[in-house]
Amino acid sequence: MRRAIITIGSTAAGLAALLAFKSHPVADASAAATPAATPAATPTPTLATGHSGVDGAGKTTSASPPARSSAPASETTRTLTGTVVNTQHGPMQVQVVLTGKQITKVNVLQRTDDGQESVQIDSFAIPKLTSETLTAQSARIDAVSGATYTSAGYIQSLQSALDKA
Length: 165
Hints:
Elements: H1 2-20, H2 25-41, H3 44-47, E1 52-54, E2 60-62, H4 65-69, E3 77-81, E4 85-87, E5 90-99, E6 102-110, H5 116-136, H6 148-163
Antiparallel strand pairs: 1-2, 3-5, 4-5, 5-6
Helix pairs in contact: 5-6
């Protein structure tokens, strides 16, 4: 009887502590991710190509040489290809485009190919994985529920590409 009272009391105390716990890193992570995503959305690197063109509003644009020379030397664009990861449902391979040290684009070169179900899973999981990669700016992303093999292959190939940087 004494053990039961101690066990119930300990369980109640543990539950109270668990309910009182407030997680703050989630709010901080979203605030920290916002500035990192902002430079990728700016059209500055596209304007610094030295080509003339027409913007979305129909106005003629041209890049001036000072805009190109004002970019820091660390703003070079590199394309890194990850290793092919063989999953239970086929190969996965990711290619990353880095501008400086920032991930600006992710291309999936090979997808799992184990029939129609793999196509459906990939079509819903890969955009989520890519979005998380661009937000996190690393391979430390969550797997997509229901796409375990695709997620594992994507993350492993992504990490191997980033290791080459």
